[in-house]
Write a structure and sequence with these properties.
Helix 13 (about 285-295) runs parallel beside helix 15 and helix 15 (about 325-335) crosses helix 16. The protein has 16 helices and nine strands. Strand 2, helix 5 and strand 3 form a beta-alpha-beta unit. By secondary structure, the chain is an alpha/beta fold. The chain has a single domain (about 5-20, about 70-355), classed as TIM Barrel, CATH 3.20.20.140. The longest helix is centred in the first third of the chain and has 17 residues, at about 50-65. The strands form two sheets. The protein has a six-stranded parallel sheet with strand order 4-5-6-7-8-9. Strands 1-2-3 form a three-stranded parallel sheet. It is globular, with a radius of gyration of 20 Å.
Amino acid sequence: MSDIQITNCHTHLFTAAHVPKTYPHWALIPIKRVPWLTALIAWVLAFLGFQEAAEQVRRLRRFQEETSSADQRNILQNMCRHYPKGTRFVVLPMDLSQIGYGPPEVQIAEQHDDLARLAATDEFGKELIPFAMIDPRSDPLANELWRAVDTLGFRGIKLYPRMGYAPTDKTLMSLVYPKAEEKGLPVMTHCSRGGVKGHGLPDRIADAYTDPAAYLPVLKEFPRLKICLAHFGGQRDWDAYVNPEPPSPYHDERTRNWQVMIRQMITSGDHPNLWTDISYTLFDFEEYIPFLRTFLEGPTKEHERLRRRVLFGSDYYMTRQEELSERAVCIRLRNALGEDLFRQIAEINPQVWLGERQEPADGLWR
Ligand SMILES: [Zn+2]
């Protein structure tokens, strides 16, 4: 096996202290304290035929298992076990204070400070690449964001519009993107129909904030800004793509498939600084990997554009509940893509994304 220095561009280390106590529902507080209760409830719901509710409870259980670690260091240690020595991890914090469930015990500034401390240790200093999270509603002047970047040395920005703001939010347009573009700081943003959503926010609106097309005005105004639409559109859209069904007014992914849209936006060559990552989505490994490989491997300029703009990421620890371990998926991925393609998305592309490596000027984007 050749030596590939992997950079996992999408991971999380936040803990229960960073999540509001009543999320996703106050009635679940006792259940959060007694983990096996959720397993039992999920089983009963499934037995009674309430599959969707059972799935929701199961998801909660996973979430609480994942977040129950004592601190970020703990989760990081667990994550490192899955990867070869020397692997680097981009860590994306979460500000969940504005989703309508009350404030979490530990605020975002403290979460940033914790991460900065971890990144300063001999043990993890080289492995850890922290990004700073901004929710414009809790940080309307972007003070905390720029403190994390300018003072703590964070290397990029994390957004999560699905929680209830548009990518064209005025704080972002006036105080975040211009400076990020100027500094060459990458912006990672959640782009799938699943995940965290503001309390009471209708799916339709959450989807409108998350939609790849919602970034077009941003891409137009800040053409040099590096933006990554994480999750490559997400599992629902991949599923709809892999299993084409007739269009339906209730299933937007069948008519406006985000995976297809992201690929078109990147391969068009109109947005040279638009990226995507395969985190979480590709953990549905068997189903999707042949498609990913087909998209990436080919002789045309379009293939090449996409090949240079897909990042390896996993979404640890969101993936811990999946059947396969993180290590098992990564090795299968590497095996299926082959060393060259894997090196491209796991080593070369992350270096370009993080501003550590120049890309050859070969006219690919004209
Ligand atoms: Zn994530």
